Amino acid sequence: MNIFRLAGDLTHLASVLVLLLKIHTIKSCAGISLKTQELYAIVFATRYLDLFTTYISLYNTLMKLIFLGSSFSIVWYIRKHKIVRRSYDKDQDTFRHYFIVLPCFVLALIIHEKFTVREVLWAFSLYLEAVAILPQLVLLQRTRNIDNLTGQYVFLLGAYRALYILNWIYRYFTEPHFVHWITWISGLVQTLLYADFFYYYFQSMKNNGKLQLPA
Amino acid sequence: KTSKSPKDEL
């Protein structure tokens, strides 16, 4: 494992911790899209099916369990927790799941490495992860005044994706035949979705001000 | 080094 991959995983972990911190200690999920969180839960559930069949490393297994556990508990908190759920911006978070899930599934049926249940679900999880942030970005755009933790959360998620791209570039040059178009293109699309957010995030840092997206 | 699949990633 190279430094970019490790840094990417740790950034991903940090994003989840920031979100749990917000939900668990402040008891608020204001500005957080339940739709995005549910899509991530589906992403991890379909991608980590190999937990039961392939052992890669203790690190890999532990991280998978953490991402699975945290994504489902975040969904539980927003839906079921008696205090947290009151802060959920239900009326603003209107993105429809099937607009995202259905095209990803169809695409996975067409483009995959092998036509087996696991491979199709694996491709599906990559396509879905690429666009799962969309409901969250739409919600940010609508709320406009974004609190610090929500801003950090989205920034860390974007940074995790950018580091994964560096990881693939590194692997491409150090491992023979490391060419994986499905992973690369969906990963690139996913990272590009953050470009706009990054722009305003760095602007707000430069001006030492609050993160605010234009209407 | 041998070629691996990105399935060892998360």
From TrEMBL, chain A:
Single GO BP term: protein transport
Subcellular location: Endoplasmic reticulum membrane
Membrane topology of the entry: Multi-pass membrane protein
Superkingdom, taxonomy of origin: Eukaryota
Cellular component, GO annotation: endoplasmic reticulum membrane
Position of the signal peptide: none
Main subcellular location of this protein, as a coarse class: endoplasmic reticulum
Residues spanning the membrane: 55-78, 98-115, 121-140, 152-170, 182-202
Keywords: Endoplasmic reticulum, ER-Golgi transport, Membrane, Protein transport, Receptor, Transmembrane, Transmembrane helix, Transport
Pfam families: ER_lumen_recept
Molecular-function annotations in GO: ER retention sequence binding
Family of this protein: Belongs to the ERD2 family.
Listed name of the protein: ER lumen protein-retaining receptor
UniProt source species: Dorcoceras hygrometricum
Lineage of origin: Eukaryota, Viridiplantae, Streptophyta, Embryophyta, Tracheophyta
